[in-house]
Predict the 3D structure of the following.
Amino acid sequence: MSEPGDTPDDTDSTPKGETKDAPRKGRPNGRRGRPLGPARRRPRDSASVGRRADVSLQNLPTKEMPGEPIVLAREDHSISRKNIDEDALKVMRRLIRHGHYAFLVGGGVRDLLLNKQPKDFDISTDATPDTIRTLFRNSRIIGRRFKINHVYFKGGKIIEVATFRSSSADDEEEVDEEVQTLGADNTFGTPETDAVRRDLTINGLFYDLSTFSVVDYVGGIEDLRTKTIRIIGDPVVRIQEDPVRMIRATRHAARADFEIEKDTYEAICQEKELIKLCPTARVYEEFVREFRGGSSNRAVHLLFDTGLLEYLLPNLWVTLGERPKLAWKRLDTVLNRIDEATRASSSELPASVLFLAITVGNIPASLIEKVSAEPRGEETLEYWTLEPLVHVDSNGDTQSDSVERSLAKLSTRVEKVKRSSRTRSASSRLGNLIALVFEGLTISRKDKERMEQLLYARFLLLTGAEDKVVADISRRSYAADLLLLLQLTEPEGHPQAVVQTLAEKIQAKKRKPVSKARPRNRGRTRRAKPEPGKEPEKESSGEE
């Protein structure tokens, strides 16, 4: 059975003048030209454990690999091919079969060594993007600054294959290559230069499928053993090259429960202000990942301790400084709920819900004073408070909208949001407040509109939670997001009854059977003509 993307005959991809079994020109003879099999495995040698010896890459020319990596043989590490995606193995095997090096790199190797299941399997090779495109017809070259290949498989799976980069290629492996706008920077390198240019030591490990060994040029194995997060090279220089590395260091420290190395930690505290120089869209995407790894509580504490939170969410930073005991208590509760929901969910939680959950009720006094001075500012703030305010008139009676008015207001607001989405008109007062709360980030127009919908619907539920209101909201497209927001933010007590009612109506809507469309009757059904000499049968009435 051929692999996805295989050519009808492997000789189709063999350079002209060479046979299929002949070694590639300019390549070292020996192991790269032979098929995979038991005979290729090296005999176990306990004396080679942790030894600085170039075991897996010994046939590379010395001028290409001047450094000596630490190599762990198969018996010295926990990585098994059973835990590697089958399609990733197919890609590496084909590259090796055609005379190229193919290493599993980055977070995939790190997670496998930590006995975790990786989300992505990225591959580095010495084959150029054009060569990779020739070997895999089910691939596409992307990227402007540095070209990489995406190999596509069934189910929407993508295996990323990149050529070894030189140390001068400063764009990180986690950067979205399709958004790069600079000129070409396709400077290819060696395995060593490719490892050195990565962000953290624990992300600079290679798994060599040809010998089943782990190759380490940057000290990542030792940092995994000591549970240390360390930026490769001089941390100050590397952060100045790409300040986003500071967010990645805190994220990986939180997810793996590692400690940030002293020099790296001090460099982050010293250069934290540089995060303002990065593209806001890129910072936004990196920041969202802090809440989607199941360790957002420790991640936010690290961002606060290093000072990065001051430039990511300045209003939340001020609130935590104004009333630390109360604000931290509520924030820790919300973050713990986010981590529980992340572990229980098979899909990523919406960014709009995550950001609202950590900021609703956590607005600094300075921002409240500024918004209150604007026309109808106090009314706008009601949507963002932890518990919506209830106005009291001179007679001591509460003033609240009727159910009918509340529903009409909700429907009108939803339509306005839809129209503003189409016409790109000026945002509402609530939209302006959203922009002020998240002034350190660039919230997309789609997320901002969803936040407005969630805040309005949440206000209605907590001020007029009658069955008609809950039933109407449960039919909205954002009902599931609203339920998640309430579960994350609302304290114990009365709001929980609202949450339970909304959850029941959403579940009832999901269980409701879908009525099948009846086929159109294109004419009256004709009865069969009776045979000659027989009387037509009479329809039975069901009674004897």
